[in-house]
Design a protein that fits this description.
Blueprint (H helix, E strand, L loop, with lengths): L5 E5 L2 E5 L50 H9 L3 H8 E8 L2 E8 L1 E2 L15 H5 L3 E2 L15 H5 L12 H16 L1
Antiparallel strand pairs: 1-2, 3-4, 5-6
Helix pairs in contact: 1-2
């Protein structure tokens, strides 16, 4: 094998490649330009908490608690039904042996299209996919004032044990459904 770097054309741009562990040749980019979105800049001041960088928004949208879809729909200028059918999916979690369903913003694929049919239930494959939240516009959340419970509770600089789990949100949905049946 030659010690010279191999030149590849990727999406019309020529890139230098080397064997694993070797430094890139002089003049070659130090990082893969297609991974730059995966490597966020360090938090400017962790004491400030959320500074709306959107790191969480670019990986997996947060779940809504009961009563929040209506507020977000109003903010978006839609009826709750239209809001669910155009921007949300139905996810599930097991709570004490019972399947519980909750609404979540749909993830967008790399072309900006919904990665799953909106208004429908998702499966295990969808849960594993990373995707940008439908409400993230690059500069922040378009429904920030009515963002989902999980988003409001999440602080990227805090310990993960303080975040709202899907099980905890599932309990809210289960308890809400039980209260409505009574």
């Amino acid at each position: 094998m030659s010690d010279r770097p191999t030149r590849l054309r990727i999406f019309g741009k020529e890139e230098a490649t080397t064997r694993a562990g070797e430094p890139p040749p002089a003049g070659a980019p130090a990082e893969n330009p297609y991974w730059l979105d995966e490597e966020p800049a360090p938090h400017p001041d962790p004491a400030k908490g959320c500074v709306r960088r959107g790191l969480c928004c670019r990986s997996s949208p947060g779940w809504f608690a009961p009563g929040e879809v209506e507020q977000a729909a109003e903010l978006a200028g839609l009826t709750p039904d239209a809001f669910v059918r155009s921007r949300l999916v139905v996810d599930e979690v097991e709570v004490d042996g019972e399947r519980v369903f909750a609404f979540a913003p749909v993830k967008l694929d790399r072309l900006g299209r919904p990665a799953w049919p909106t208004g429908s239930r998702v499966d295990a494959l969808y849960r594993m996919l990373r995707g940008v939240c439908v409400f993230f516009d690059g500069g922040g959340c378009r429904i920030y004032a009515a963002r989902p419970f999980e988003c409001r509770a999440y602080v990227c600089t805090g310990p993960s044990r303080d975040d709202a789990s899907h099980e905890a949100i599932g309990r809210l949905w289960r308890d809400h459904a039980g209260a409505e049946r009574q």
